[in-house]
Amino acid sequence: MEDKKMDNEKTKVTSALCTNCGGQLDIDTSQETVECPYCATKYNVSDLLDESDAVRIEKIKQRTQKDVEIEKLRHEKEMAQKHEDKANKEAFKKSKFSKVLIVFAIICGLMCAVSFNDKKILSGIIALIQVGLFAAAWLMGMHKVKEPKKGIKSLASILAFLLFIPYFGAFNSSSSNTQKINWNDMVLCEKLPEPASKVGTISSNSEERLSVDMHKTSQKDYSEYVSQCEALGFTTDADKTETNYSAYNADGYKLHLSYYERNKELSIDLDAPMKLSEITWPNTPLTNQIPVPNSTLGKVNYEHADSYSVYIGNMQKSDYDAYVQSCMDKGFNIDYSKNENSFHADNSSGSHLSLEYRGNNIMYISIEAPDNSAAAQTTEAPKDTPQPASDTKDTKPASTTADSGVSPDFKAAMDSYEQFFDEYIAFMKKYESSDGTDLSLLADYTKYMAKYADTMQKLENIESDDLNAAELAYYTEVHARIIGKLAEVGQ
């Protein structure tokens, strides 16, 4: 028993740390040397057993230092990646590919409007998808949205270009919803004469709206149908050309007829009268910037702290013209655009006003406050806080906004982008109502193209920093408004 106990003491096993790699050493005290199983460093067992606490602490420090070095390398790698991303973003911004994406996104937006205007719903949806794909590719290239996987940006743009094939196929094809139409099945059939054609496509059939495209209609059929509608009383605020006719009847129903020679198609749209009631003009800093209309009959479209939209009834065309002039007299005369039935302008405080005469003694008013989100977040420094000298190089310009606000440059670019489409929509409406002999269309087109060049320049001048939350929200809001306005062109 004594001999066995002695053997166990001689073969006692302990542990220590390797001074070279920090790995654990299992030491057999009966041996003279031990080898690190990780780095193959050899030690005298006696030296390891005599290791002091100070040496152990030093080893711990060395291991900690290695961890710090590893973290430092990881941080440097992240910074290098950020610099690379920034360089790629700047290169993309200056590239022709970036400009191509912007141009084709706008082209597809115009195609979308044309498609809906021609009642080509499928092709309009395809063009809308193309706009989204081109916009997504551009945003990923500018690193404003994260690219889920490398190559997705290129894939989105390629897919958008490929969609031109089904777009033109859908645009040129006849509607698959063509059917035999019994005019007595139309809810508002008694308001209009029955068309000569008996086949067509029904888009809407309700008490509020009738929208139907009658196929196999000749130019003579269209002309006779217009005369029949006039005989039924659709003569108020009439606007008549060879291919378009719009008017109200005494009950306030709005009729719009369009004839498409290429498709031999008559488009009939009839809207029920707008339901108006007594309203109270709001007393707010925004609405107080414009005169209170003489009529209290109307319909509030929406009301917010920074925007107000309303329809006002009992406003004859002369009343509308007088109201436009009073708004100009009250300061809305900056960068104004005015034609017979619409008016757009800003005032010195940056508020934007839109007025339209919709016919049937109805005026539309929309006023929007300037975006002061950045100014609202600017805080004044305490009086006892030393202010930096005016010539300090690191001082930011006064126009720089807080991270959570919309920068003036970005807002100006997006506002110009939206105004560009406003000009296009106004041009399209004027073109639709013309007979091709209006020479002012050429001047409008020249102005439209100049606006296009200015808009593209402002978009290119947007700073390459990532959009903050407010800017992304404003970008989405502007695009939503543009899509809504484009859709209205086809109505």
Write a structural description.
- The longest helix is centred in the first third of the chain and has 42 residues, at 53-94.
- By secondary structure, this protein is an alpha+beta fold.
- The strands form four sheets. The chain has a seven-stranded antiparallel beta sheet, covered by helices on one side.
- The chain is elongated.
- The protein has 13 helices and 18 strands.
- Mean pLDDT is 77; it is low at 4-10 and 373-404.
- Helix 5 packs antiparallel against helix 7 (164-172).
Please render the helix and strand layout as text.
Elements: H1 2-10, E1 13-17, E2 24-28, E3 33-35, E4 42-44, H2 45-49, H3 53-94, H4 96-117, H5 121-141, H6 152-162, H7 164-172, E5 179-180, E6 199-205, E7 209-214, H8 219-231, E8 236-240, E9 244-248, E10 254-260, E11 265-271, E12 277-278, E13 297-303, E14 307-312, H9 317-329, E15 334-338, E16 342-346, E17 352-359, E18 362-368, H10 373-377, H11 408-432, H12 440-460, H13 469-489
Antiparallel strand pairs: 1-2, 3-4, 5-6, 6-7, 7-11, 8-9, 9-10, 10-11, 12-13, 13-14, 14-18, 15-16, 16-17, 17-18
